[in-house]
């Protein structure tokens, strides 16, 4: 992200020279923006008392290239593939420690990587014109949730590790992660007795409460 | 990868042979002219003949030790491959050369990646370079890398340059190309050059520059070299881009299978990357 705020273009001095029609133009270039697209706002002020009549034109340009530069769909997909491969390796590597009493400690790195990748993809999407890696985030959240609330104990089983590694391997190989991929991942995790939707339990409880109140 | 972007590629082809006293260079020049009437001829010192076709953006070079061809655009090479090879064959026949010291094929491609230069540089770390965290304490921040590799694979020796270019760098790189003046009429006014330049400077791009060669090649095997060299360059470009994008790269054997399958030759091993599950989603 660009560190400058309200950067003035390199030829700002020349822009102050009066134009032939008596208009002076002042241009400002901003590189910091939550918006993903370029835009320009213009305001023209008349300076009445002057002879001949003069105008000052203020143009404020929003240059979004800096904001966009780490959010191209191809770039995000590449990072998803690369970092998913690392997480898949970490999950497979848990096999060496599955009998260890401090097994939860060994799952920590995978969990941190999952959180970091979810954060990275989610942040990048804020500056994207359209959602790019939403399905990838969904699968990553499912896997993350399976590690929470003592879920790490399940990872002592080889079957669980293989399944999670296979899901991640698909994310490494796929050009695009689709909604059916997310559904399929959810099904496979549920079939193994994992809890891939820790956050959703709250809503179930709310539904029960609402049903109780209305009943 | 290269075929899809053939209007963003320059190609060079050259055969080198031993110079000997009494080389019948005039006969080779005559053979080239008979095969293909040149639009323009330039003569240089040391018996240097430069045949140019500015409209086609092509050039043939004949010297006592080398016959070379240059084209602006891969299409200008591939579409006229028979013609190019017949010209070289005619020259070699006139020179009575049967063994070539070196045969080389070079491609300079400005490939679009659909991402910014900052992003593609970021992807270079961890793929073609070590992780950025390991390099910046030594080299500092703001690294703009260029990777140079010399290697040998499946009978080809090659030198490969990979880097990412923004529009300005691509412009400088393109305008520095040697001999561009000799392929066109007036470099500063030529529409083909301008359009090529506009294409490669439209967005940030990935430079794929490979110079591959074989040594001690019989002149009778020139066609075999020319076709397999292009296939090799195509496979290498595909693998480099896939590797940069962290997509699964194929082994060369698998890529050969794919190429054979495209040409209707059976024996391909099928898809290299099976889907992660054959199950259908639960309703």
Arrangement of strands in the largest sheet of chain A: 1-3-2
Please report the distance between the alpha carbons of the first and last residues of chain B: 39 Å
Radius of gyration of chain B: 21 Å
What is the helix/strand order of chain A?
A: HEEEHHHHHHH
Layout of SSEs?
The complex is a heterodimer of chains A (215) and B (283).
Chain A: H1 12-15, E1 23-30, E2 39-47, E3 54-62, H2 65-68, H3 73-93, H4 103-126, H5 134-147, H6 158-173, H7 179-191, H8 200-214
Parallel strand pairs in A: 1-3
Antiparallel strand pairs in A: 2-3
Helix pairs in contact in A: 3-4, 3-6, 4-5, 5-6, 5-7
Chain B: E1 9-16, H1 25-35, E2 40-44, E3 48-53, E4 58-62, E5 66-72, H2 74-78, H3 81-95, E6 99-112, H4 117-124, H5 132-139, E7 146-153, E8 156-165, H6 167-175, H7 180-183, H8 191-200, E9 205-218, H9 222-244, H10 252-262
Antiparallel strand pairs in B: 1-5, 1-6, 2-3, 3-4, 4-5, 6-9, 7-8, 8-9
Helix pairs in contact in B: 1-3
Structural key phrases:
heterodimer; A: 215 residues; alpha+beta; three-stranded mixed β-sheet; disordered N terminus; B: 283 residues; nine-stranded antiparallel β-sheet; disordered C terminus
Offer a concise description of the structure.
The complex is a heterodimer of chains A (215) and B (283). With 215 residues, chain A is α+β, with helices and mostly antiparallel strands.
Detailed description of the structure:
- The complex is a heterodimer of chains A (215) and B (283).
- With 215 residues, chain A is of the alpha+beta class.
- Chain A is built from eight helices and three strands; from the N terminus they run H-E-E-E-H-H-H-H-H-H-H.
- In chain A, strands 1-3-2 form a three-stranded mixed sheet, with no helix packed on it.
- In chain A, helix 3 packs antiparallel against helix 6 and helix 4 packs antiparallel against helix 5.
- In chain B, a hairpin with a 4-residue loop joins strand 3 and strand 4.
- Chain B is built from ten helices and nine strands.
- Chain B has 283 residues and is of the alpha+beta class.
- In chain B, strands 2-3-4-5-1-6-9-8-7 form a nine-stranded antiparallel sheet.
- The radius of gyration of chain B is 21 Å and the shape is globular.
- In chain B, helix 1 runs antiparallel to helix 3.
- At the A-B interface, helix 3, helix 6 and helix 7 of A face helix 4 of B.
């Amino acid at each position: 992200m660009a560190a400058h705020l309200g950067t003035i273009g390199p030829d700002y001095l020349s822009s102050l020279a009066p134009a032939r029609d008596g208009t002076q133009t002042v241009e400002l270039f901003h590189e910091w923006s939550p918006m993903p697209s370029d835009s320009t706002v213009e305001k023209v002020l008349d300076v009445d008392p002057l002879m001949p009549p003069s105008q000052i034109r203020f143009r404020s340009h929003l240059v979004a290239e800096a904001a966009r530069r780490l959010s191209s769909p191809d770039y995000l997909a590449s990072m998803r593939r690369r970092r998913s491969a690392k997480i898949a390796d970490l999950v497979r590597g848990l096999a060496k420690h599955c009998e260890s009493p401090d097994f939860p400690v060994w799952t920590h790195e995978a969990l941190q990587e999952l959180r970091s990748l979810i954060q990275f993809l989610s942040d990048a999407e804020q500056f994207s014109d359209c959602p790019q890696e939403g399905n990838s985030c969904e699968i990553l959240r499912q896997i993350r949730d399976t590690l929470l609330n003592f879920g790490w104990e399940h990872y002592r089983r080889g079957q669980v590790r293989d399944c999670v590694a296979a899901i991640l391997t698909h994310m490494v190989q796929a050009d695009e992660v689709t909604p059916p991929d997310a559904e399929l991942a959810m099904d496979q995790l549920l079939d193994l007795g994992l809890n891939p939707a820790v956050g959703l339990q709250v809503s179930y409880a709310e539904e029960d409460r609402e049903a109780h109140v209305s009943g | 990868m290269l075929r899809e972007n053939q209007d963003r590629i320059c190609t060079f082809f050259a055969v080198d042979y031993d110079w000997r006293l009494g080389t019948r260079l005039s006969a080779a020049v005559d053979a080239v002219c008979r095969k293909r009437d040149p639009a323009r001829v330039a003569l240089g010192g040391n018996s240097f003949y430069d045949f140019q076709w500015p409209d086609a953006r092509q050039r043939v070079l004949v010297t006592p030790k080398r016959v070379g061809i240059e084209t602006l655009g891969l299409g200008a090479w591939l579409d006229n491959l028979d013609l190019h090879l017949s010209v070289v064959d005619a020259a070699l026949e006139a020179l009575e050369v049967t063994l070539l010291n070196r045969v080389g094929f070079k491609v300079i491609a400005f490939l679009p990646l659909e991402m910014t230069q900052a992003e593609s540089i970021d992807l270079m770390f961890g793929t073609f370079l070590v992780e950025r965290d390991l390099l910046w304490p030594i080299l500092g921040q703001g690294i703009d890398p260029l990777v140079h590799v010399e290697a040998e694979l499946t009978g080809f020796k090659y030198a490969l340059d990979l880097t990412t270019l923004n529009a300005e760098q691509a412009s400088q790189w393109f305008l520095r190309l040697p001999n561009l003046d000799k392929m066109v009429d007036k470099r500063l006014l030529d529409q083909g050059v301008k359009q090529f330049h506009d294409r490669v400077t439209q967005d940030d791009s990935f430079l794929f520059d490979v110079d591959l060669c074989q040594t001690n090649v019989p002149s009778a095997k020139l066609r075999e070299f020319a076709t397999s060299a292009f296939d090799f360059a195509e496979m290498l470009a595909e693998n480099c881009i896939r590797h940069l994008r962290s997509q699964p790269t194929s082994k060369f054997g698998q890529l050969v299978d794919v190429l054979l399958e495209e040409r209707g030759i059976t024996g391909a091993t099928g898809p290299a990357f099976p889907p992660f599950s054959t199950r259908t989603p639960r309703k």
